[in-house]
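quick one before i forget lol
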Amino acid sequence: MPIYGMMISGADMPICFKLVACSMKLINGEDGEAVESYDAVLDFFKKAEKPVRAGDVVEATGLEKKEVSKIMTQLKKEFMIVSPKSCMWEIRKEG
């Protein structure tokens, strides 16, 4: 369900803002489980010393492959992880 914004001062027409439902679910979580999974995957990437495959994340976190895939997609959209080479992922370095 989209959430709409308000009028921007001086604008001739209303401006709409949408929040993506899946992002809200991932951030808020049904019972905190989605947030814990997201944090577990993000922590794994922060601690990894080298680029890793999605399968490494599944193995290390104990989460299902489908769930890890969704979380990694979210992390990519947020520019938190990057791919230095095909099928390998690492936390984005600052700078």
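fyi The longest strand covers residues 81-85.
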